[in-house]
Amino acid sequence: MSDATTQPRSNTSAGTISGATIRADEAAHFGKLAKDWWDPKGSSAMLHRLNPVRLQFLREAIDLHWAGDIEARRPLAGKSALDVGCGAGLLCEPLARLGADVTGVDAAPENAAAAAVHAEGAGFDIRYIAGEVGALDLGTFDLVTAMEVIEHVADKRAFVAALAARLAPGGLMVLSTPNRTPQSRLLMVGAAEGLGLIPKGTHHWNDFITPEELGELLGEAGLEMGEPRGIGFSPAKGLHLSDDLALNYIVTARAR
Fold first, then answer.
1. Domain map (residue ranges) of the chain
2. pTM of the full predicted structure?
3. Is the pLDDT of residue 9 over 50?
4. Which UniProt keywords apply (predicted)?
5. Which residues fall in the annotated binding site for S-adenosyl-L-methionine?
6. Torsion angle, CA of 240/145/249/27, rounded to 10 degrees?
7. What is the predicted pLDDT for the residue at 204?
């Protein structure tokens, strides 16, 4: 099936915003994984491998955006951060270590609950909320992240608009997502789920979004997308930042 004939699972037509982004089946799927989200050898093992790569990009983006000290251990001290689609907090806790006042939002109540329990045990004061990000009275944040989330939402345009509404003036947004390419269909859906590296049903290739499409959505929301970096895989390097965008990519966005 070519990209031209690919249809997303959303019922939202082009040019409209439904306002609802959560898919009940997606929330239920990830909610079932809550109990072993923090197990590096469990169902979320791939996210544990991916997290250091995302954090490498994120740290560089933070330093560049705020012209901070690259040696500082807490470059987000005094700043607020919102992680949307936070799961059980794999990114929220590192953001707290970097000094941020962190809020995590997830569609699955089971994930928000698991995240809160883990954070308390680790000594982090992180606020976790389950619900629709666009419907929550959250205020604005200096840093907004949504990692491996937009491919799961029902209305991508509404989701990006909701993220943009949560970004404070002068703030930074960082998103990562699989690209919709033949390579991602073969490796991320066919091979990874077929071999059990990712739980079956995690990905729906038709819902993957290209960098060009994401850039258009961000532009509509008044944001400018930075140069995307690929997240590639090789037997020698494992998951790593790359110039190859074929599988997965990560980008910054900020107000124009």
1. 18-255
2. 0.86
3. no
4. Methyltransferase, S-adenosyl-L-methionine, Transferase, Ubiquinone, Ubiquinone biosynthesis
5. 54, 85, 106, 147
6. 100
7. 79
